[in-house]
Amino acid sequence: xxxxxxxxxxxxxxxxxxxxxxxxxxxxxxxxxxxxxxxxxxxxxxxxxxxxxxxxxxxxxxxxxxxxxxxxxxxxxxxxxxxxxxxxxxxxxxxxxxxxxxxxxxxxxxxxxxxxxxxxxxxxxxxxxxxxxxxxxxxxxxxxxxxxxxxxxxxxxxxxxxxxxxxxxxxxxxxxxxxxxxxxxxxxxxxxxxxxxxxxxxxxxxxxxxxxxxxxxxxx
Amino acid sequence: xxxxxxxxxxxxxxxxxxxxxxxxxxxxxxxxxxxxxxxxxxxxxxxxxxxxxxxxxxxxxxxxxxxxxxxxxxxxxxxxxxxxxxxxxxxxxxxxxxxxxxxxxxxxxxxxxxxxxxxxxxxxxxxxxxxxxxxxxxxxxxxxxxxxxxxxxxxxxxxxxxxxxxxxxxxxxxxxxxxxxxxxxxxxxxxxxxxxxxxxxxxxxxxxxxxxxxxxxxxxxxxxxxxxxxxxxxxxxxxxxxxxxxxxxxxxxxxxxxxxxxxxxxxxxxxxxxxxxxxxxxxxxxxxxxxxxxxxxxxxxxxxxxxxxxxxxxxxxxxxxxxxxxxxxxxxxxxxxxxxxxxxxxxxxxxxxxxxxxxxxxxxxxxxxxxxxxxxxxxxxxxxxxxxxxxxxxxxxxxxxxxxxxxxxxxxxxxxxxxxxxxxxxxxxxxxxxxxxxxxxxxxxxxxxxxxxxxxxxxxxxxxxxxxxxxxxxxxxxxxxxxxxxxxxxxxxxxxxxxxxxxxxxxxxxxxxxxxxxxxxxxxxxxxxxxxxxxxxxxxxxxxxxxxxxxxxxxxxxxxxxxxxxxxxxxxxxxxxxxxxxxxxxxxxxxxxxxxxxxxxxxxxxxxxxxxxxxxxxxxxxxxxxxxxxxxxxxxxxxxxxxxxxxxxxxxxxxxxxxxxxxxxxxxxxxxxxxxxxxxxxxxxxxxxxxxxxxxxxxxxxxxxxxxxxxxxxxxxxxxxxxxxxxxxxxxxxxxxxxxxxxxxxxxxxxxxxxxxxxxxxxxxxxxxxxxxxxxxxxxxxxxxxxxxxxxxxxxxxxxxxxxxxxxxxxxxxxxxxxxxxxxxxxxxxxxxxxxxxxxxxxxxxxxxxxxxxxxxxxxxxxxxxxxxxxxxxxxxxxxxxxxxxxxxxxxxxxxxxxxxxxxxxxxxxxxxxxxxxxxxxxxxxxxxxxxxxxxxxxxxxxxxxxxxxxxxxxxxxxxxxxxxxxxxxxxxxxxxxxxxxxxxxxxxxxxxxxxxxxxxxxxxxxxxxxxxxxxxxxxxxxxxxxxxxxxxxxxxxxxxxxxxxxxxxxxxxxxxxxxxxxxxxxxxx
Lengths: 220, 1070
Fold this sequence. Notes:
The structure holds 2 protein chains of 2 kinds.
Chain A: H1 10-32, H2 35-38, H3 52-58, H4 63-66, H5 81-88, H6 99-107, E1 113-114, H7 127-131, H8 138-141, H9 158-166, H10 189-206
Helix pairs in contact in A: 5-6
Chain B: H1 18-24, H2 27-34, H3 51-72, E1 80-81, E2 97-104, E3 109-117, E4 120-126, H4 139-148, E5 157-159, E6 162-164, H5 166-182, E7 188-192, H6 198-210, E8 215-218, H7 226-235, E9 239-243, E10 250-254, H8 265-274, E11 284-289, H9 294-298, E12 301-304, H10 310-327, H11 344-356, E13 361-365, H12 371-383, E14 391-395, E15 413-417, H13 421-424, E16 433-438, H14 443-446, E17 450-453, E18 462-465, E19 471-474, H15 487-495, H16 502-510, H17 514-523, E20 555-560, H18 574-578, E21 586-587, E22 592-594, H19 596-602, E23 608-614, E24 617-625, E25 633-637, E26 665-677, E27 681-682, E28 697-699, H20 700-705, H21 729-734, E29 741-746, H22 755-763, H23 771-775, E30 784-791, H24 804-808, E31 824-831, H25 840-844, E32 850-852, E33 858-860, H26 870-874, E34 881-882, E35 907-908, E36 911-912, H27 913-919, H28 928-937, E37 950-951, H29 957-971, H30 990-994, E38 1000-1004, H31 1011-1016, E39 1021-1022, E40 1034-1037, E41 1039-1041, H32 1054-1063
Parallel strand pairs in B: 7-8, 7-15, 10-11, 10-13, 11-12, 15-16, 16-17, 20-25, 22-24, 28-41, 29-40
Antiparallel strand pairs in B: 2-3, 3-4, 5-6, 5-17, 9-14, 18-19, 20-26, 21-27, 22-25, 23-24, 23-26, 29-38, 30-31, 32-33, 34-37, 35-36, 39-40
Helix pairs in contact in B: 4-22, 5-15, 6-15, 7-12, 10-11, 10-12
């Protein structure tokens, strides 16, 4: 006898092991190798402890005060230190935490902020067309007005983009409410949903909002 | 000159000599033609590395990559965003800015608008605000932006070959200035290229005043100033001619390649195309020439004569006309010219046509022709009332050019401004001291004591005068990348002037109020400064020129300005090297152009290296038989064979300057076969349309009789009516889409200049592949210009029915020298993705990487492409391009060889590339500074494709998206989102914008009022291969020729005759 008896069960054992391994690998890949895991939650430490919670949330500074290019350019720019100094030349004038900002404004040396949100190079995302046409910052960036340190909130995967592109009516809002991150149609959740549905469809129709799902919309 | 041993010659001896083989139609050639890519194109590298070896190497690389991934983790690397410290006003990061400037040329300037992205210029366009301009450029202007980012540019101030500091070098100029101020410039000489800059003229004047004994020489290897000198001599005043091809009804070109090789050709093309609208009365072009040029290809009648006999023909015509002028008699049968080898009827009928259209005639002489021919042209123009009508004469400053009185011994210090005199003049001796401002460390720099790096025109302040006399601004888009000096600053320092800043010098020359100055910079030109045409009468005697009969032992040599490298200045420009020559379709080389008959007589064939001897000097170069060449003429393109051009341009082609003595046409040359051969890389080996109606043509008379001649019922196969089981998804999408994009290409306007090809390359980040890759059929141009030669089927034999399949394909080694290729017609057809509505490429893509969008674009998602190349295989137009290698990462030094290194075998800056790649996966096999420059030069709106990805024209989808996004952002909460031609919001594709002829029209075909919709309703509109039911969105407008029925060579367009004899189906009603 060349093969011992236990080899009879080998195919079965191998089959079961393979099935178990497969059952483990597939969910592991779908969970851990997708942007939901690899990107969302990313929260690097920034060179200046700037709090969006204080500025945008508590003080109510509009997003566009600092990110002033967002309505004109594909890029939502970071403000120059001179923008910070508009207030901080009076407020917290000598605070040591702002030393880098004062130095930057005085000597024109850039502050090395760490980039949080990024789409791949082959995706040509344009801020202006979204913001100007009623897609709120909160839809992609989450409640930045509640974050002390900015965190990557949403996955930014292709399906994340497509969910909205396939159904813009569910996400569109009046253009003057775009930077109001806590804005809702109504405090009543059911009513808000209904109003979103009705008004969303109306906006999509009235503004000729396209549901762009072809490659050329984002890839060039 | 090196022949390449690795591309060995196969058994039949002429494998690489492709064009004429096609006529011979050997079986392997036929097979080759019908393949998408040449044999071997899919094998990675032939020399030494088979596919198996490659896999071995790759598996090792993958192992390394796996380890790297583990080490680096899955998170992408941390990147920094660095905003301004002080926010600049009126600047939004990410917004594109445009600045008006101009590219100076020898006799004018091209007004430009340059697109700047994050402070770096990325794309050059013509200035459409400029009066009369359609916003077009020429190919040189399009390619000039690559020179800005050329890593081989001169980067340092050097003294005796050693790098010195900028301060030390500038200090030397101060000393120089003081030294010669003391002795009023004794021994000081300047050698400069032509310039039309008023500021330079002002500085030149200051120098002449300050250093009265100094000498100023202006020298250009390509002398474009002859038009001005001839007009000045002919009319007794300092004037320069402006040719109004749009106002002419009959144009006679005396060896004048005004559509191709002459300076200012983009203006000529624009005006010429404006006068060639079939519906509105066409002009007629007679061309008398020796080389086959773009002008000859556009001509209705072309006479093939040696360049040195042009004078006789011009003389004969002018004699006939003066006879008429003096006696008042119309030209009778007695009017004859007796020139050997020239049909006298051709000349007399041409003369009659000129007379019949007096007042609307334009005769132009080529810049390579001697002054006497120019004077004869002006004589004819004067006799026929052209002056003031088709020829404008604009007063201008007289410029002395040439090197008369240039005495090396009398010069103590020679200041060289630009140019490359050592290369152009093959100079060996040098004056005592030479100070030079140059863009490259080239042949001249090597012999200079002091070298100053020059700034690019996109880095300098200057001004210039266009060919019509308008003053234009040259303003910088970027600080000099390597600290180069603008020419004006350099001159001001030599002159010891202050201020030395080029900006202040230009401002000083301009004068005027601050408002005027701002307007000047905003518009890019000073309005109303164009010269007013003067009415002058001809008042010169025309000396006779003795012409010499050419023969096999007394060949004529024609030195011509190359359509790619110019006089050699663009030799290091990879786009220009790889641009197929508009006529020969040759890349990365020049050749000895020769006629079929001469080649046979001298026993030479394509690729044979011959030694040309002229006036005791000789040079070696490969032969290329050019259909349509005059017999016993040799065409030699100048500008190749550079020794110190840079890594791209070194030793490409052969240096014709070695036998050039300043005369562009010379007799008395002989050639000798050396026995060596050289491989020439041509992009179009396929001459004939094989009787297919890809290009459709008719004579004007036939068009007037049957305007629908181009339609399928007369000209091709009617598409079958097919009821598909599946609906085309585009039909559904069309209902809601905002636009439907389409394009027309007017074959009647297109002259085939190639500007669109370079513009496309610049806009779409198309890589340079190198000569070896071109030979393998891997060139990457998204847009090509197919040039087909057609000929009279009857010249093959006397039978009335000519059958390609029977007679022409009977192979015989000698048939490639068949007589009928002597007199050919050429047609040009720009070929780009046709954006078929039912695209054959899409249905075969296994990963749906190429699909339609809702607006009718056939788009490519590069990141999805896995490189099966099925799409390319299934494309009937062959417009898809595959990245066989990572061309962007390829070292410049490897562009010309067969070697393609891998990171395993290659070192950059002394560091093993695999190690560099480990540290930075983006590094590639190029040194860091080079790598920075290549990144700067790319258009950020277009993905840079990597190896293994298919790519193709997308109608510049990035421009369309940009326009749509801008419109939507502007619309906000309104429905004003549609782009419309009426509102001027429709984008232009790069090729359309660059086209001097305005042949390409792009727009929304769902808008009935758009130009493209109207053009598609024209009877001339047809689809190429429309019978395949691909429903192309790019359609063509058929070409109409306007030959003179009285001429002896009047006939139907050859392509029509070929089609009829081939298809065996008689045409509808003629």
